Amino acid sequence: MLRWLATLVIAGLLLLTAMLPSTSIGRRGTEAQLRADVPQAVGRVGEPMPDFTLPDLDGTPVRLADFRGHPVLVTFERSVDW
Fold first, then answer.
1. What residues have CB less than 8 Å from 31, skipping those under 6 apart?
2. Which residues are 53's β-sheet partners?
3. Model confidence over 11-41: pLDDT tens digits?
C-alpha cells in the first residue's frame, strides 16, 4: 500500500515538473521582463551592488558600503515563522 502511494506521489511530481513550465505561474520570462516587473532587481554579476542596509542576527543595521573592497556573500533564508 505504501509503495503504491509513493509511486503515485513520484508520478504526480514528475507530471508537475513536466507541466508547470507551460503554465503562467511556471514561466519565468526573459531577464528584461523580470527587471521590468521588479525594478529593485538591478544587480548583475560582476557589477557593484547598490548600497543597502539590512539587520544582522542581533538586529544591528549593517550597510553594504562598510564591506566595499571585500568579497561579500549575501544570503536570504526563510525563517520558520514566515
1. none
2. 63
3. 999 988 887 776 666 666 666 666 666 555 5
The Cβ of residue 69 has, within 10 Å, a number of other Cβ atoms equal to 5
Of 66, 36, 71, 69, nearest to 51 by C-alpha is 66
H/E stretch holding 63: strand 61-63
Confidence (pTM)? 0.37
Which residues does 50 contact at the CB level (< 8 Å), separation at least 6?
42, 43
Per the structure block, which three cell numbers stand in for 9? 506521489
What are the C-alpha distances in Å from 38 to residues 4, 30, 57?
43, 12, 27
Domain chopping of the chain, boundaries: 2-67
